[in-house]
Amino acid sequence: MTGFRDVLVVSDLDGTLLDHETYSWDAARPALDVLRSGGAGLVLASSKTAAEISDLRDAIQFPDWPSIVENGSGLLEPGEDPQADLGGDTPLYQTLRSAIAGLPAGFRGFGDMTEKEVSERTGLTLSAAQKARMRRFSEPGVWEADSAGFDAFLAAAQKASLTVQRGGRFTTLSFGGTKADKVVELVDRFKPRHTIVLGDAPNDVEMLRQADHGVIVANQSSAELSPLPGEDQGRIRRTTRPGPEGWADAVLDILQEISQMKETGTHG
Ligand SMILES: [Mg+2]
Fold first, then answer.
1. From the CA of 12, how far away is ligand 1's center (Å)?
2. Distance in Å, CA 8 to ligand 1 centroid
3. 223/103: higher pLDDT
4. How far is the CA of 53 from the centre of ligand 1 (A)?
5. Per-residue model confidence (pLDDT) at position 266
6. 243 and 21 in contact (C-beta within 8 Å)?
7. 189-207 average pLDDT score
8. Claim to verify: residue 135 and residue 120 sit in the same structural domain
9. What are phi and psi of 224, to 5 degrees?
10. What is the Å distance from ligand 1's center to 205 Cα?
11. In the predicted model, is pLDDT for residue 25 greater than 60?
């Protein structure tokens, strides 16, 4: 299998490329190596900040591709130093924090937490938690009051033109932009022939719909996603193994299928 310059992979991180518990991507190495040597693109898409994703993007050796950060509310471009112009407090982020402060009480955002608390709630090390708090576009947090209060909070957020995305661990507020929006933008920029999108949670569903090949990575720690349009036809598939193991299984299978299509000439 060689020659994947016309392939763009977009992947969620937690519970998808990264193990839900350990954050390890080690089991995905075989597939990452094939993608890299074949010249495929890999766009990481996550609720993580630019400061967090930058290190991972370097570690997996795909530094020349943009990353979708903070749940799609922004991009980290190749070569951009996420820590150079940050300090964690951009004007946009400060405006967002002020808007949240005007909503019904009960939401506790990363900006309200110490590095230690973020570390405890996420399982990240203290230095990783520090990077998780370096935000530009969005504010993740937890709801601490009752569920009726949460409904009122959501309604008020909508009234204030804030976008709310509910992920596996956190609820994230922003001024808009989703992972799916950014996938559309990047597909338009790079014009791949084959777009592979991988995710594990409800907040990945919209971006899975943008894929030529969508992959739902098994995650035993959250509720199973209901069947998606295109699943019957095989456009969207599910892995049996969770996290990076399932990631590698699916990516290698799809690359094999793309290679076979090319060899038999059934695709262009
Ligand atoms: Mg996930």
1. 6
2. 19
3. 103
4. 14
5. 64
6. no
7. 95
8. yes
9. -65, 135
10. 11
11. yes
Ligand 1 centre distance from Cα of residue 251 (Å): 17
Whichever domain contains 140, its CATH number is 3.30.980.20
Say what the pLDDT of residue 237 is.
97
Q: Are strands 213-218 and 41-45 parallel, antiparallel or unpaired?
A: unpaired
- 247: tokens are 């990631």
The residue behind tokens 């022939």 is 193
Q: How far is the C-alpha of 138 from the C-alpha of 108, rounded, in Å?
A: 13
Burial 241-267 (b: 16+ CB within 10 A, else e): ebbbbbbbbbbbebbeebeeebeeeee
* pLDDT digit string, tens, across residues 45-69: 998 899 989 989 999 999 999 999 9
DSSP-derived secondary structure letter, 230: T
Task: Output the pLDDT for position 106.
Answer: 96
Ligand 1 mean position to 22 CA, how many Å? 13
Q: Which of 174, 199, 219 is the last residue of a domain?
A: 174
Is 90 exceeded by the pLDDT of residue 224?
Answer: no
Ligand 1 centroid distance, CA of 20 (Å): 8
Residue 2 lies in a domain: no
Cα of 261 from ligand 1 centre, angstroms: 30
Which is it for the CA torsion 184, 185, 188, 190, positive or negative?
negative
The CATH number linked to 228 is 3.40.50.1000
Residue ranges making up the domain that contains 251: 7-81+178-264
Please indicate, yes or no, whether residues 70 and 188 belong to a single structural domain of this protein: yes
Q: Are residues 66 and 184 located together in one domain of the fold?
A: yes
Q: What digits encode the pLDDT tens for the residues 141-180?
A: 999 999 899 999 999 999 999 999 887 688 989 999 989 9
Instruction: Indicate the pTM of the whole model.
Output: 0.85
Of the residues 174, 200, 220, which one is the last residue of a structural domain?
174
- 107 and 150 part of one domain: yes
Output the CA 263–ligand 1 centroid distance in Å: 34
